[in-house]
Specification:
- The chain is of the alpha/beta class and about 525 residues long.
- The protein folds into 3 domains: about 15-200, P-loop containing nucleotide triphosphate hydrolases (Rossmann fold, 3-Layer(aba) Sandwich); about 205-210 and about 345-400 and about 405-505 and about 515-520, P-loop containing nucleotide triphosphate hydrolases (Rossmann fold); about 215-335, phosphoenolpyruvate carboxylase, domain 3.
- It has helices at about 15-25, 40-50, 65-80, 95-105, 110-120, 145-155, 175-185, 215-240, 250-265, 270-295, 300-315, 320-325, 325-335, 345-360, 370-385, 405-420, 450-460, 480-505, 515-520, and strands at about 30, 60, 85-90, 105-110, 130-135, 160-165, 185-190, 205-210, 365-370, 390-395, 425, 440-445, 470-475.
- A 7-stranded parallel beta sheet has the order 3-4-2-5-6-1-7, with helices on both faces. Strands 8-13-12-9-11-10 form a 6-stranded parallel beta sheet, with helices on both faces.
- Strand 10, helix 16 and strand 11 (about 425) form a beta-alpha-beta unit.
- Helix 11 (about 300-315) crosses helix 15.
């Protein structure tokens, strides 16, 4: 009889989870599994195995407090351990109390920032842990705390076990390899929806792409803003901070800013360099206005134009002063005052939500949008609908004079949606990652996102327990189209990269993955 701390009957046995957990209990492993297929159950099985080893202790990390609380609740419910052997660590707990828990808990669930701080203060030694779990481990890059923690663990306990978990590590093969190197990963266990042992548990997700046309009122505003941007772009090209074949992306404009800053840092502190920095800042601000006009909401655009004018009036930004004094900006201001209708995406959201409730009145729907002001506009629109009970899920930071949601408030919103008290959840990016929202029938993208990681995370909010729907709203002739196709290419490339890396780690020759007919249909509209 197998000994286990896992309570009897609390998890359903799935062969692929057992197979992956068996490997991960012996060797540091990166687990890549589609959202909703039980990465946390695999972690539970690995943790259970470690607890039976002499002195076995576990540190389980996740990026946010709501996710940490979620994992703590899961482990407490599923494991039969004496009270106090599972501890949750967040910044709300004083360093003194954390010091005590570090000494006595067998499983510690924490944000990486708290772990990093307590390592620096000497409250914890990572060598005391047999297993480190890195949830959403695609974050293990740059200056993120995961990188520092993994480096220390590798030095303090080179024989220690590491489990990295993610639904989407990215499409860049080198980036995935870097994650493995950073975390000390020796093996990758990846599954896609098409693997035979996973396919029986994958729910069908119907994807629909809805196009809208930009109305003439917004098109004229966009044209004025584009003329403003063109002048700044031409200036940056003459200064050789932008290439002649500039593609119009924010990424390129940000790159120009880095090059200007590098010149200033190297000692080239002349008037033209500071002019270049101001022009680049103006270009970024104008490009954001174009984005709002073409792909977001009139409400968000009005708020942004008002913000630029306030900054200029208070002389808080030289870039804003220059923008507001531009004759094209004054035309934008005049034209915007005459706009009486919202962006057509707003009506499509209402139509789509109404249609889903007509087919299934008990549905729960998530609407993702990039910006809080657009989230406010969507919330107002949905609130006017009979039968809709919307809530907003936003980040913690204050924006535009408005407070964000504290982590306890975020958890409360999620619980109210999960319980059915609310049936529409309007979320910014905070709702994309990790949160256990298992009963969503439809996900609406207010705009496509170019990141395959974020696209997969958004789509993963539906189709967990039953078939789901994904609706992507796209303004034709705008960057929406480019972002949509970019994310599709990257998502396919990610699966190819994982397969190639799996073959490479096994010492076999990589081969191109053939896209199955089932998956091809997912992208046909």
């Amino acid at each position: 009889m197998k000994l286990s701390f896992i309570r009897e009957g609390v998890i359903s046995e799935r062969l692929y989870q057992e197979n992956i957990a068996r490997v991960a209990a012996k060797e540091s492993t990166l687990v890549v599994l589609p959202t909703g297929l039980g990465k946390t159950v695999i972690a539970l099985k690995v943790i259970d195995s470690v607890l039976w080893t002499e002195g076995g202790r576990v540190l389980f990390m996740a990026p946010t407090k709501p996710l940490v609380e979620q994992h703590f609740a899961f482990l407490t419910e599923k494991l039969s351990l004496p009270e106090g052997e599972i501890a949750v660590m967040t910044g709300e707990l004083s360093p003194e109390h954390r010091h005590d828990w570090w000494k006595k808990a067998r499983i510690v669930v924490s944000t990486p920032q708290v772990v990093e701080n307590d390592i620096l203060s000497g409250s914890v030694w990572l060598r005391d842990f047999s297993l480190l779990v890195f949830d959403e481990c695609h974050r293990a890059a740059g200056e993120y705390a995961y990188v520092h923690i993994a480096g220390i663990y590798g030095k303090e306990k080179p024989e220690g076990l590491v489990l990295g978990m993610t639904a989407s590590p990215g499409s860049d093969l080198q980036a995935v390899e870097n994650i493995c190197q950073t975390l000390g990963i020796k093996r990758i266990e990846a599954r896609t929806e098409d693997d035979p042992d996973v396919e029986p548990y994958v729910q069908d997700i119907a994807v629909r792409w809805i196009e809208v046309k930009l109305p003439e009122t917004l098109r004229r505003i966009s044209s004025e803003l584009r003329q403003m941007l063109a002048r700044r772009v031409d200036a940056l090209k003459r200064m050789e901070f932008l290439a002649e074949d500039f593609g119009g992306t924010t990424k390129e404009l940000l790159g120009a800013g880095r090059r200007i800053s590098d010149e200033l840092a190297s000692g080239h502190r002349n008037r033209s360099m500071y002019d270049a920095l101001r022009i680049q800042s103006e270009a970024i601000k104008i490009a954001h206005g174009i984005d709002l006009a073409e792909t977001q909401s009139v409400h968000a655009l009005r708020k942004y134009i008002s913000k630029l004018m306030d900054e200029a009036a208070g002389k808080k930004s030289k870039a804003s002063v220059s923008i507001v004094s531009d004759e094209h900006f004054r035309t934008v201001e005049q034209q915007l005052s005459g706009v009486t209708a919202e962006h057509p995406k707003m009506e499509k959201v209402k139509e789509t939500v109404a249609g889903q409730f007509l087919n299934n009145p008990s549905s729960r729907i998530m609407v993702f949008t990039q910006y809080r002001d657009s989230a406010d506009a969507v919330y107002a629109a949905v609130s006017s609908m009979t039968g809709a009970r919307p809530l907003k899920l936003i980040g913690q930071s204050a924006r535009g004079g408005k407070k964000g949601l504290k982590q306890k408030e975020q958890i409360d919103v999620i619980n109210r949606f999960a319980s059915g008290e609310a049936n529409v959840l309007i979320s910014t990016s905070v709702g994309e990652e990790g949160l256990d929202i298992t009963s969503t029938d439809m996900v609406i993208f207010f705009e496509p996102v170019p990141s395959e990681i974020r696209t997969i995370q958004r789509k993963g909010r539906t189709g967990r327990l039953r078939a789901g729907k994904v609706v992507v709203l796209i303004t034709t002739g705008t960057k929406d189209e480019g972002y949509y196709y970019s994310s599709k290419r990257k998502e396919r490339a990610m699966k190819d990269a994982l397969m190639s890396l799996n073959w490479k780690l096994q010492g076999r020759t990589p081969r191109q993955r053939e896209v199955p007919e089932k998956q091809k249909k997912l992208f046909d509209f």
